[in-house]
Design goal:
The protein is α+β, with helices and mostly antiparallel strands. It is built from 19 helices and 13 strands. The strands form four sheets. Strands 1, 2, 3, 4 and 6 form a five-stranded antiparallel beta sheet that branches. A four-stranded mixed beta sheet has the order 5-10-9-7. Strands 8-11 form a two-stranded antiparallel ribbon. Strand 9 and strand 10 form a beta hairpin. Helix 6 (about 125-135) packs across helix 7, helix 10 (about 240-255) crosses helix 18 and helix 14 runs antiparallel to helix 15. The longest helix is centred in the N-terminal third of the chain and has 37 residues, at about 5-40. The relative contact order is 0.08.
Length: about 500
């Protein structure tokens, strides 16, 4: 009988060898880039030396992180591709900064499209990272937001044979519990695929099936992100990149746990059971497994499709638009400040509009990415929100420091500007808070401030909340509803801020 300890040791050695090969390839890429910089900017020796020093520091950081890349090593070709593309992007921007050659807008456009193509080709964690990044319009150039936003709509479907094989595997080869299974997916996403089906008793359901082999690919992609993160710091100085990468990695891994997602769905259903304007699908636990989730099928229109159609229906359409935004904002406020359970994947495909006796209602879908907030954190966010709404800089500074926000210099001007951007539409007690609002001006101010004084630390539980705010802000600016956001938010802030210890 073979010695299992020896096999484990051999596998570990293979993993180390593979990781070394990957890192050596990356080192070769960096050496090549440095050689080109030295040749092309020989007359700018001071700048070239600075680039070389930066790249040397980058390589030290990447090499130091190699100890934890066993998953990446097992997927060495994919790891090398992802890390290589990230390093290529960094090198292009560093070269532009040194040489001044070429148009920056064209550089953004070219590499945004290249990154989009990489996400579509590789899917997995890479595509999920792209989807996440697309919602952070406060961090990325417009070309990246536009290109990566296309990842939210639709990605190529996985082969049906592979989906059915995974479904049979999860149910012990027995598919008799399904009377029918639609071959065309309702949604094809980065980590899973959703199909309509009918249970043996005639119940219509949707079946969310984790893509075969996706867990391993996700680990490869996340390892590449974490190893190359030091190289990206200069490109997004306003971002606490280490916290961002760590929290994003946690969130993506959590999305692979369908048992936890079923628990989250049940928790949301219980939290909003008394709210007739919100619908949460019921989980069919007996048919669900670690990698398959079977849910009540809800018929409705995708949120943005419905909102687009409202414009053609005149006054009645505008009223339905405003009603839906009031429901959506109230729902997010309740999640963070009342229930302590944030639906942190708010792209339009995760909301459906369904008919109700009093008008359109909102259905929440996909509970794979959920951020919990303990009562103390709810009070802290409520205190910060009240300070922002009242424009009290001293209280804002105290809350920023207590919650874990920090700029490089310690001055909180950039943090206050960022908070203003997130909540400026909520500061006006009017039915039309977006009239005359120019978020691009606030964003330009933030970029100017963070260029000189980057935000170097944010609390981990803000990363996903920032994603939700960015998505909601984009919807508000696009559709311009007439809703008194101040009157919706303020009661939740006051109640959460006054919660007993």
């Amino acid at each position: 009988m073979a010695n299992p300890g020896r096999r484990t040791s051999d596998h570990a050695a293979d993993a180390v060898d593979a990781a070394a090969a990957v890192l050596a390839a990356a080192a070769g890429l960096i050496d090549n880039l440095l050689a080109r910089v030295d040749r092309l900017v020989a007359e700018a020796s001071r700048d070239a030396r600075a680039v070389a020093a930066d790249a040397a520091e980058l390589w030290d950081a990447v090499a130091a992180g190699a100890q934890g890349v066993s998953h990446a090593a097992r997927g060495a070709p994919r790891f090398a591709r992802v890390a290589g593309e990230m390093l290529r992007l960094v090198a292009a921007y560093r070269w532009h900064a040194v040489s001044g050659a070429g148009d920056l807008a064209s550089l953004h456009q070219r590499h945004a499209e290249r990154l989009y193509a990489l996400c579509v080709e590789l899917r997995g964690g890479v595509l999920k990272l792209g989807q996440f990044a697309s919602s952070r319009m406060d961090l990325l150039p417009d070309a990246y937001v536009a290109a990566l936003s296309r990842l939210q709509d639709r990605v190529p479907a996985a082969p049906l044979d592979a989906i059915l094989e995974r479904l049979a595997e999860e149910h012990g080869g027995d598919l008799d519990r399904f009377a029918s299974f639609e071959p065309q997916p309702l949604a094809a996403a980065s980590l899973a695929q959703v199909h309509a089906a009918t249970l043996a008793d005639g119940t219509p359901v949707v079946v969310k099936i984790q893509l075969p082999g996706i867990a391993r690919l996700v680990e490869v992609d996340l390892a590449a992100l974490q190893l190359v993160a030091p190289a990206l710091r200069d490109q997004v100085p306003s971002l606490d990149l280490e916290t961002f990468a760590a929290e994003l990695s946690r969130a993506v891994r959590a999305e692979l746990d369908y048992r936890a997602e079923a628990v989250h769905a049940a928790a949301f259903a219980a939290a909003f059971a008394a709210d007739d304007d919100l619908v949460v699908p019921r989980v069919h636990a007996a048919c669900s497994t670690d990698r398959v989730l079977v849910l009540e099928r809800i018929e409705g229109a995708r949120l943005t499709d419905y909102l687009d159609a409202c414009a053609a229906r005149g006054t009645a359409g505008a009223a339905d638009r405003d009603r839906l935004f009031a429901i959506l904002i109230r729902c997010v406020c309740a999640q963070v400040l009342e229930h302590g359970l944030l639906h942190a994947d708010p792209h339009p495909g995760n909301f459906l509009v369904v008919d109700g006796p009093d008008g359109p209602r909102l259905a929440l879908l996909d509970f794979g990415c959920v951020q919990p907030y303990a009562p103390a954190r709810r009070r802290a966010y409520a205190g910060l929100g009240l300070a922002v709404l009242s424009g009290d800089p001293l209280r804002m500074a105290e809350h920023f420091a207590a919650m874990g926000f920090r700029s490089r210099s310690g001055d909180d001007a950039a943090l206050r500007a960022f908070a203003d951007l997130l909540l400026q539409a909520f500061r006006v007690d009017t039915a039309d808070p977006l009239a005359g609002l120019r978020p691009e001006d606030a964003l330009a101010r933030i970029l100017r401030l963070t260029r000189d004084n980057p935000i170097v630390a944010v609390p981990p539980d803000f990363v996903l909340l920032g994603r939700v705010f960015a998505t909601l802000g984009g919807l508000l600016v696009r559709y311009r509803p007439r809703v008194n956001l101040f009157q919706i938010l303020l009661p939740y802030l006051l109640r959460a801020g006054g919660e007993a210890e």
